[in-house]
Amino acid sequence: MKKNDFNIKMLDPENCAMCGMCTNYCPTYKISKNESESPRGRISIIEGLNKGELKPTASALKHLNSCTMCLACESICPAQVNFYDLMVQARDKYFHKQKLIFKIKSLLLSIFFTKNIFRIFIKKIFNILIKVRLDKAKIGIFKNLQYIKTNTKKRINFKTYDTNRKNIGIFTGCATDIFQESVSRDCIDILNRNNINAEILKNIKCCGSLDFHNGRKTMGLKNYHDTVSKFNTNKYKKIIGYASGCSAFLMSNKNYEDATSYILNILTKSNANFKTSYLKVCIHKPCTTRLANINFENLIQILKMVPELSVSIFDDKYCCGAGAQNLLHNKNNSLEIINPKISFLDKNNIDIILTYNVGCSLNFISAINTNNLENVKVMHPISFLNDRLI
Ligand code: SF4
Ligand code: SF4
User: Fold this and answer.
1) Given 244, 266, 288, which residue is the final one in a domain?
2) What is the pTM of this model?
3) Ligand 1 mean position to 74 CA, how many Å?
4) 108 inside domain
5) In this structure, what are the phi and psi dihedrals at residue 218, rounded to the nearest 5 degrees?
6) Which end of the chain is more exposed for a tag (fewer CB within 10 A), N or C?
């Protein structure tokens, strides 16, 4: 979500000049070459729906659902069309006309990820599957477990340096709490090494973006307000979260900062030393980097401080295809969009992909699994840096 953008105004799709400059930046147009899968096509569909010239049928709505909300179109648009708001409004307005399967999947995802009791249940099942090493069986989706499981040592000691000093609160998010719990420990570990108190925020639900972007705006906003109401400014100096998707949504809260950005600044000031690492890493830049205010160049510079580490970035500049729940609703699209990045990994013998958004991580894991590139790991940069710190 963009800063201070909660009261979305009615927007006019006619602001679009239909110039088509955005088309070649759109990942779904790139794979389909279908005008309805381009930003301009989607704007025309929204206009047709809003004017009643087009019925909200499944075949019309599928083109809105397949948008990854990467906002590459918005960044390039000379008419400054507010594509984000147009899409959020349209998805919300026509959610009730979606196919039943779409609504069921969206509701189940929301229930299991944002309700604490269900999330704890999923986490327990997930940890049991990892413990019994079901990943070794290499059956279907269980193969993914071997990539998701933690590969970071639990060195955390929860030191308190000064009881009068405010802590940093770590917001774990919903999907990140299930799939990347270890990253919160890595955040605390790095902060503790730098004499900063930190703790994980308890009993906080999702940031709200999950529902907000998928047509359930009211529920998304409710989750957002519940979450930020617990950002206790008396107790915490700052709240940090390590999924850039959540950060992009939470940045309007002045007490919040993205964890990658915060920790990179600390490492820059601390003259950190790293272990020699004969590894090839490739850094992925999630679409939410800009809105989450993460300095991607800073990440490259810090990784270059790791002796012998080979650092590369993807030559394909399109989004990975996971955004706005496409991994759930349009998995084939997500896999096709990410394909050039997977070929890059294969061609360049990359050992580790570093990405700071959980949706992108899951898309990479799924694509690596599908393409049998089993030697490539996916890690959060915070976990990688913590593991390499001396
Ligand atoms: S947000 Fe991304 S996927 Fe959606 S229309 Fe714009 S460029 Fe295409
Ligand atoms: S959204 Fe912007 S760039 Fe795309 S066709 Fe419309 S005016 Fe042109």
Assistant:
1) 266
2) 0.88
3) 8
4) no
5) -65, -45
6) C
